[in-house]
Specification:
This protein has about 325 residues and is of the alpha/beta class. The protein contains 10 helices and 9 strands. The chain has a domain of about 200 residues. Helices cover about 55% and strands about 10% of the residues. It comes from Limosilactobacillus reuteri (Lactobacillus reuteri).
C-alpha cells in the first residue's frame, strides 16, 4: 500500500484535485489563471486564494467546501474546482456551488442590483456535457428567445481538459495542456511557475503525508460504498424475484380457474380437462417450490449482506423475521446454517 501511494504521489499532476489545490494556492499562479480564463475582466489583484472556504446554504443543508476561492478588487467572487471523476451530476453540482458562492455576493441591507458577480469555474477531466466542446460558458436565457441572456451576475465556465480542439486562446490552451500532462511550450511564464510550484508541493512532507492519509480514507470509503451498493443491489434483485414469483403464481391460479371452467362447460372434455388440470397443478407446485427456494436464497443473501455491513445478529434476525414473516423456528434454522 505504501509503495502504491508513493508512486501515486510521484505521478500526480494538476489533474489530481489535491495537487491542483496546493498549486493554485500560489497567488501569482491563481491570478494568472484567472487572467487567462477571463481576460475581459482586466483583474488587477485578488485576495490570497483559500482552499478551505466552506459555506452552508441552509442550516439543514450539506456544507460545500470550495477547492479554490477568492475575490478581486471589484468584489467579484471566483470558485475554481478540479473535477476528476464524472459522477453524472455536473449541472446540479454547479448549481449548488453557484448558490453558495452567490450568497456571499449579497450584502445584508444592500439593493439587489449592487450584488457582486460570481464565477464558478470547473476544470473537468472529462467532457462534462458530452457535446464535444472544449469550453462551456453557461448563462440563463429566455427559452422563447435563446439568444437573450439574463444578466444576473452568475457565470459558470467548464473546461473539457482532455479535448484537443484548441478552441481556446493559446495561453489558456497551455494551462489545459499542463493539466492534461501534454507537451507544453517551456517558455510560457505560467508553465515555468507551474512546474516550479508542483516541485515545491512534491517536496512538502506535510502535504505528502496528508495526501496519503486522504488517499487511504478515500479508498476505504469507496470500498464501503461499493459493499453497500452491492448489498442494496442484491436486496433489489431479491425483491424483483419475489414479485416475479408472485406474478407467476397468480398467472398459474388464473390458468387453473380457466381449466375448471372448461371442465364444467363440456362433459365430453372432462377427461382432457382433468389432464390439463393435473399438468397445471404440477406447474403451480413447481413454481411454488421455486418461489420457496428463491425466498430461501434471498433470505440467506440478505443475511450475508447485512453481516458484511457489520449489522448485529439481533437486528438481522428481527429484520429478516419481520420482512419475510418467519416463525422463531425458521429463524433459528437459518442462523444455525
Amino acid at each position: 500500500m505504501n509503495e502504491f501511494l508513493r508512486k501515486k504521489w510521484e505521478m500526480a499532476g494538476l489533474s489530481d484535485d489535491y495537487i491542483f489545490n496546493k498549486v493554485m494556492l500560489d497567488y501569482d499562479i491563481c491570478l494568472e489563471v484567472l487572467w487567462r480564463i477571463l481576460p475581459d475582466l482586466h483583474i488587477k489583484k485578488i485576495k490570497l486564494p483559500n482552499n478551505q472556504q466552506e459555506f452552508t446554504v441552509a442550516p439543514d443543508a450539506e456544507a460545500v467546501r470550495f477547492d479554490i476561492y477568492t475575490t478581486d478588487e471589484q468584489g467579484n467572487y471566483y470558485d475554481i474546482e478540479m473535477q476528476v471523476a464524472d459522477h453524472h451530476n455536473i449541472a446540479k453540482r454547479i448549481r449548488y456551488y453557484q448558490t453558495a458562492s452567490s450568497m456571499e455576493a449579497y450584502d445584508k441591507g444592500q439593493p439587489y442590483e449592487q450584488a457582486d458577480d460570481s464565477y464558478v469555474i470547473f476544470f473537468c477531466n472529462f467532457d462534462p456535457f458530452q457535446l464535444g466542446q472544449q469550453r462551456y460558458v453557461l448563462h440563463k436565457h429566455i427559452d422563447e428567445i435563446p439568444e437573450q441572456i439574463i444578466e444576473d451576475g452568475q457565470t459558470d465556465i467548464l473546461f473539457n481538459v482532455p479535448s484537443l480542439r484548441h478552441d481556446v486562446d493559446p495561453k489558456m490552451q497551455a494551462f489545459l495542456d499542463m493539466i492534461a500532462q501534454r507537451e507544453v511550450e517551456a517558455t510560457d511564464p505560467l508553465v515555468v511557475k507551474l512546474k516550479e510550484r508542483i516541485a515545491v508541493v512534491k517536496r512538502n512532507r506535510k502535504w505528502r503525508s496528508e495526501y496519503m492519509r486522504r488517499s487511504v480514507y478515500e479508498m476505504d470509503q469507496e470500498m464501503r460504498e461499493k459493499k453497500i451498493r452491492e448489498g442494496e443491489r442484491k436486496v433489489r434483485d431479491g425483491k424483483r424475484e419475489i414479485l416475479e414469483g408472485n406474478r407467476e403464481l397468480l398467472e398459474g391460479k388464473r390458468e387453473l380457474q380457466k381449466g375448471k371452467r372448461e371442465i364444467q362447460k363440456s362433459k365430453r372434455e372432462i377427461k382432457e380437462g382433468q389432464d390439463r388440470l393435473k399438468e397445471k397443478e404440477q406447474l403451480i407446485q413447481e413454481r411454488e417450490q421455486k418461489l420457496h427456494e428463491n425466498q430461501q436464497t434471498i433470505i440467506k443473501t440478505s443475511i450475508v449482506a447485512m453481516r458484511e455491513l457489520n449489522i448485529d445478529e439481533t437486528t438481522i434476525k428481527k429484520e429478516i423475521k419481520e420482512k419475510f414473516d418467519l416463525s422463531d423456528k425458521e429463524i433459528k434454522d437459518y442462523f444455525a446454517e
